[in-house]
Design brief:
Largest sheet: none
Length: about 525
């Protein structure tokens, strides 16, 4: 059995001493991790200890990659067994008279959105048994986590949920949080969402029973969707979401009127794939609203047979749940026949992207950049701009290449564009400029909110920088992302570490011979 002193305080002592070998051995002890789980009912303490060890490791140059891999492997093992914890389970433990276990379990949930939701559920549960002091403390924790959520719409939703949970005990605080959530939804920090923020907020308000606020927000979203010259794909998506909101609120007439407008907007989308996705989403919303005839008509109008089959399958599922098995059976057969008739090849890269890349390679940078910026799909636009930036850098116009790379939308894609630029500039022999660009790429990568995406970006950058910097980037990637993400790059720069790690951890569950 693990001695008591190894469970409390010893981690902090080793961290203060900077004794990384003993610290890693301690926090990576599975028996100790399981005993902490048994004592507290959650993995929060073990995960906190691993985070403490990582902070010591990253601060000690050069980073010990074997130790980083061990820590990452253990953290991911613990995270995996907490990933599927239902967000309402902690509240169940409160009802069973174990509030400490409930709180520890909620804190062990790794995703911020899910952890905020679990803590919000605990607020109501703890308040219901009369422990208002604990409820207030949990509400403060939930509020802090909610405010740290990167996505504006998710942050607004979390605050709205929490407002509903505290409304009975602190009405003024609830109103303040609801007002803040609404202000977030109206803010212009991320114009990509537009009225979608209001729609998400209306949905959350409906879920907590604030029907007046939900209706006001939905009507505001509808007004915004029509009040400006909006992209048809975006407008169709927003109107489809409003179909769901008004249907959930019981206003089916309003929902079906919006469905007609959404279908009209979707029909005007030029890009065939985007048009298909918009109509497929509308069919799903109309199915949920209960107008199965209309949903079937929309499904059959889809030119993409795979999407048509999926829409018919979703409709068949909904109708079966409603009890009309004969109709559901007919739709299922129709879906099966549709899917069997598909003979077309998979979709290819959009032509404008290939054209932009080709023009950049042959030196027509003006036309290449213009075409790249005109690509409507954000993913392929980023890919085209990245290719153009690399070609421009190779030609020697580094300043223009940097400008194009910085124009790539989204932190993950921009980090990749800058990293590709680092490689191109390094190949051209301008190492000073490459170092500066690497710093920009690293800063951009570290700003990525999603931990897995951040780890991938840091690993991608590690492949094009000097070895010392690469080791630090890999250690940072292991600290935030899955342990498998940088394995291939570690194998290239430090094969001994990989062999040792495999011998110690992998052979027990992956045969290597």
């Amino acid at each position: 059995m693990t001695p008591e002193y190894l469970l409390n305080g010893y981690t902090r002592l080793l961290a203060e001493l900077g004794d990384l070998p003993r610290l890693v051995t301690l926090v990576a002890d599975i028996t100790r991790q399981d005993r902490l789980l048994g004592i507290t009912g959650a993995d929060t303490a073990a995960l906190t200890d691993i985070a403490t060890a990582f902070s010591v490791l990253v601060a000690q140059p050069p980073p010990d990659l074997l130790a980083a891999l061990r820590l990452s492997w253990h953290r991911d093992r613990l995270a995996d067994r907490n990933a599927d914890i239902p967000t309402n389970l902690p509240a169940v433990w409160v009802a069973l008279g174990q509030p400490d276990r409930a709180e520890a379990l909620a804190q062990s949930i790794t995703g911020r959105d899910a952890r905020a939701k679990a803590l919000t559920g605990l607020v109501a549960a703890v308040a219901s048994v009369g422990d208002h002091g604990r409820a207030n403390a949990l509400a403060a924790q939930a509020e802090q986590i909610a405010r740290s959520i990167a996505s504006p719409s998710s942050r607004a939703t979390a605050l709205t949920d929490l407002a509903g949970a505290v409304s009975a005990s602190d009405h003024n605080r609830a109103q303040d949080m609801a007002a803040e959530a609404e202000q977030i939804a109206h803010s212009g920090a991320d114009s990509l969402f537009g009225p979608s923020r209001l729609i998400n907020l209306a949905t959350a308000a409906t879920a907590v029973g604030d029907h007046d606020r939900a209706e006001r927000l939905a009507l505001q979203a509808e007004h915004l969707a029509f009040s400006s010259a909006r992209d048809p794909e975006q407008q169709a998506r927003e109107l489809t979401s409003l179909v769901t909101v008004f249907s959930a609120a019981g206003d089916r007439d309003k929902a079906m009127a919006l469905a007609s407008q959404a279908e009209q907007a979707a029909g005007s989308i030029i890009n065939a794939d985007e048009r298909t996705q918009a109509l497929k989403g509308l069919a799903t919303a109309v199915t949920a609203a209960g107008d199965h005839e209309r949903a079937a008509e929309i499904a059959r109008s889809l030119a993409d047979q795979e999407a048509q089959a999926q829409a018919l399958t979703d409709l068949a599922t909904a109708i079966a749940a409603a009890g009309d098995l004969n109709r559901a059976n007919a739709l299922a057969i129709e879906a099966e026949q549709t899917i069997r008739s598909i003979t077309s090849e998979d979709r290819k890269v959009p032509a404008p992207t290939e054209v932009a890349t080709a023009l950049a390679v042959i030196g027509d940078h003006d036309r290449a950049e213009k075409i790249a910026r005109s690509v409507t799909d954000s993913y392929w636009r980023a890919a085209a701009l990245t290719d153009v930036a690399k070609a421009v850098a190779t030609s020697g116009d580094i300043k223009r290449a940097e400008k194009i790379a910085r124009a790539v939308a989204g932190s993950s894609r921009r980090a990749k564009a800058l990293t590709d630029l680092v490689a191109a500039v390094t190949a051209a022999g301008d190492h000073e400029r490459a170092t500066a660009l690497a710093a920009q790429a690293e800063q951009t990568a570290q700003s990525i909110a999603d931990s897995l995406s951040q780890a991938k970006a840091l690993t991608y950058l590690a492949a094009v920088v000097e070895p010392g910097r690469a080791r630090r980037l890999i250690a940072e990637a292991l600290a935030v992302g899955h342990w498998t993400t940088p394995l291939e790059h570690i194998a290239r720069i430090d094969p001994t570490t990989i062999r040792t790690f495999f011998d110690q951890f992998v052979t027990s569950w992956v045969p290597l011979s």
